Q: What sequence folds into this?
């Protein structure tokens, strides 16, 4: 994670689909073009779907890190405003 | 303003939409819409706008809930008979969505109070059931430069159009004056199917939402008519802007609001 300057982070492990994506989307909308968001998400459905949905919105996925405890950190660069 | 987890969940199906997102939902929460008439049209408009999270909704109506209203005015329940419609409406809206501030005006909207009333709102809904009120709302919105949605329903038919200042004709450009009183059927002669209010009122709510989020094309410069029996929607293009319209034309002759005399029992709802 030290590769990136994280501007903001959001934890979506406490919600289920589709609120996972919605919560991540709300956090992204708060950022400016080019800023970086770190999203903590659960294994399974969230890790399969949330990165894909974020990509569809036009943002850039930089990295997916396995925390080794059933959760992941998804590093996203906001594209556009 | 940051969203609470509850708001994120409540408005998730809006926020997911590209055309709305968190920004659009904030616009809705910051918007102020005034609904004139808490009847067949006003009921679905008020319910959909409250559910959508339009932050401030004004509702004006002088009447009390009558048993004969319940066939179409779905914001009121049997227990509300006798209650001011604005109070009954407010209770339903607050139960649906506590995010919404509902301002009630238990009064007739007249030339005396309408300009002041609409001034603090961003968008006006005409949910009235008579021609004098429709012309009054139009003229006041033109004078105060407020966008509004006109609609009317009767029997199995309905119509609507949207006025945005400077972007198309006003109601009076299209319908010069109220019809003569004897040309209007009384409510006993006319009748209306309850679902007509649902169809046309929902379209009015949609116009208000599109205006607030600034997406899509509004029904400005066109009149949409709906004939339920023949299942026929028609979008009629209207002349752009009537130069000699007495209220929104280049040299307006109507500069003061008019309280037209109301037929004892107008038919349009």
A:
């Amino acid at each position: 994670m030290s590769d990136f300057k994280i501007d903001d982070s959001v934890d979506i492990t406490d919600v289920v689909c589709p609120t996972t994506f919605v919560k991540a989307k709300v956090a992204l909308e708060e950022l400016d073009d080019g800023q970086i968001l770190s999203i903590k998400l659960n294994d399974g459905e969230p890790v399969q779907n949330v990165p894909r949905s974020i990509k569809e919105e036009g943002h850039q996925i930089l990295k997916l890190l396995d925390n080794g405890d059933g959760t992941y950190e998804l590093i996203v660069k906001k594209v556009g405003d | 303003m940051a969203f609470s987890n509850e708001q994120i969940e409540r408005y998730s199906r809006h926020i997911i939409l590209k055309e709305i997102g968190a920004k659009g939902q904030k616009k809705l929460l910051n918007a102020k819409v005034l609904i004139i008439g808490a009847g067949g049209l006003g009921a679905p408009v008020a319910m959909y706008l409250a559910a959508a999270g339009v932050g401030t909704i004004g509702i004006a109506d002088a009447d009390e809930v009558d048993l004969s209203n319940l066939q179409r005015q779905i914001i009121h329940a049997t227990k509300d008979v006798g209650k001011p419609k604005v109070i009954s409406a407010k209770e339903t809206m607050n139960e649906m969505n506590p995010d919404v501030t509902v301002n009630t005006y238990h009064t007739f909207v007249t030339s005396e109070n309408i300009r002041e009333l609409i001034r603090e709102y961003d968008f006006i809904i005409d949910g009235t059931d008579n021609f004098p009120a429709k012309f009054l709302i139009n003229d006041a919105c033109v004078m105060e430069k407020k966008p509004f949605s006109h609609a009317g329903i009767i029997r199995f038919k309905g119509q609507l159009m949207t006025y945005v200042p400077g972007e198309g004709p006003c109601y009076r450009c299209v319908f010069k004056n109220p019809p003569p009183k004897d040309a209007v059927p009384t409510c006993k002669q006319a009748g209306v199917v309850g679902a007509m209010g649902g169809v046309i009122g929902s379209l009015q709510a949609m116009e208000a939402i599109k205006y607030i989020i600034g997406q899509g094309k509004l029904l400005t410069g066109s009149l949409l008519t709906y004939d339920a029996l023949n299942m026929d929607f028609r979008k009629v293009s209207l002349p752009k802007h009537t130069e000699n319209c007495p209220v929104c034309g280049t040299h307006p002759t109507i500069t003061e609001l008019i309280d037209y005399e109301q037929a004892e029992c107008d038919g349009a709802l």
